[in-house]
Write a structure and sequence with these properties.
Layout lengths: L1 E4 L3 E2 L2 E6 L11 E17 L7 E15 L4 E11 L9 E2 L3 E14 L2 E8 L6 H4 L17 E10 L11 E10 L7 E3 L20 E11 L2 E13 L9 E13 L5 E12 L6 E14 L2 E14 L7 E12 L4 E6 L4 E5 L4
């Protein structure tokens, strides 16, 4: 399918609510939050299937909230407001089928080089679904993103604290989980329905029989800005699935600054899945891209490849390619800060 996005307006609002870090233990409790709102129009103007030609105007919003009870213990949640179903054949949509869902809701304890969490969260595996630039750059990599799982997880950092994101800090993360089949799998406004065990799907087992392990690091001597990501995942088959899913992922990414205010964000990632989606098929993913920025302009280029090798005659082999080129312009960045919870507020519009 050939497609073009009439990306008429995109904007983000970042909300930060918090108390100054110098607060004492007794007065530490605070609320932090951040979010984004995107208005997007996708116009599919050419396709082999005429039913795929349509126009879809929709919103995509996220809100992250953290309640800190102590400097180490917190409750974290992520809310998402977006369409919860695909448009029908040749069906133009105008802000339809939106639902509000709880994507994450978990307790976290972190101290020094260690962190532990439990609840509903997104286990670690791969980064391209988050880092690939552009409007469509992460579409293929989104297939193997692990999200909305219930379980336990933790991480340990080497050469630094767990919240230190500098390239030289290495981090080992692990999680055991299963797919969310509770009422939290539903959404309001438009109900996407509750996931049940009978629906199948890898990881849909109601026990901690699926897991992922990742290792992140960087600070290499020959290129200090470069970071790497390695991971393995196992997801046990659901009721209606013939296969367990096993996957490995490896990626590189980094941000590089040049003269004249230019910044290059580059990434490449390879992921291989055996028993993909619990079926007798293997999949290989490659995502490579970069974004060149000089405020207020940015330009993004991404190439992605997805190959499916089916062992079941009822399934088909596939060789999919995605190429996307996009440009962006930042109009008015807005930053809202509320400090001391009630006593100090400021709205800033940084110069472009």
């Amino acid at each position: 399918m050939n497609q073009i996005s009439g990306h008429v307006f995109t904007f983000g609002v970042l909300l930060l609510l918090g108390a100054p870090p110098a607060l004492t233990q007794e007065s530490y409790r605070r609320l932090e939050g951040g979010g984004s709102i995107e208005i997007r129009n996708d116009y599919f103007f050419a396709a082999d299937d005429p039913n795929a030609k349509l126009n879809d105007l929709f919103a995509d919003a996220e809100l992250d909230l953290t309640i800190w009870f102590t400097p180490a213990f917190s409750l974290q949640t992520e809310l998402e407001f977006t369409p919860v179903s695909d448009p029908g054949p040749a069906d133009d949509r105008l802000f339809e089928d939106h639902g509000l869902a709880i994507k994450q809701l978990f307790l976290r304890y972190e101290t020094g080089a260690f962190a532990f969490h439990g609840g509903k969260f997104n286990p670690p595996f791969g980064l391209a679904w988050d880092l690939a630039p552009g409007i469509y750059g992460a579409d293929f990599a989104g297939d193997y993103e692990l999200d909305e799982r219930i379980g336990l997880g933790g991480a340990i950092a080497f050469d630094g604290d767990i919240d230190d994101r500098s390239p030289g800090v290495r981090r080992l993360s692990a999680a055991a989980f299963f797919a969310d089949t509770t009422s939290l799998s539903r959404s309001i406004f438009t109900d996407r329905g509750r996931l049940t065990g009978a629906a199948g799907g890898v990881g849909n087992t109601d026990d901690l029989s699926s897991f992922s392990i990742t290792f992140d690091g960087g600070g290499l001597a020959f290129l200090p800005e470069l970071r790497y990501h390695l991971g393995y995942e196992f997801q046990k088959r659901g009721e209606s699935d013939p296969e367990n899913e096993r996957g490995v992922v490896a990626g590189l990414h980094g941000e590089f600054e040049a003269d004249a205010g230019l910044t290059l964000e580059a990434m490449v990632e390879l992921a291989c899945l055996a028993g993909a989606e619990g079926q007798a098929q293997d999949r290989t993913y490659v995502t490579a891209g970069g974004m060149l920025s000089r405020a207020p302009w940015s330009f993004a280029l991404v190439y992605a490849w997805r190959a499916t090798d089916a062992d079941d005659p009822a399934l088909s082999d596939a060789d999919d390619h995605l190429f996307q080129l996009s440009t962006g312009y930042e109009f008015i960045p807005i930053l809202i800060r509320l400090n001391d919870v009630a006593n100090d507020a400021a709205i800033e519009t940084p110069p472009l």
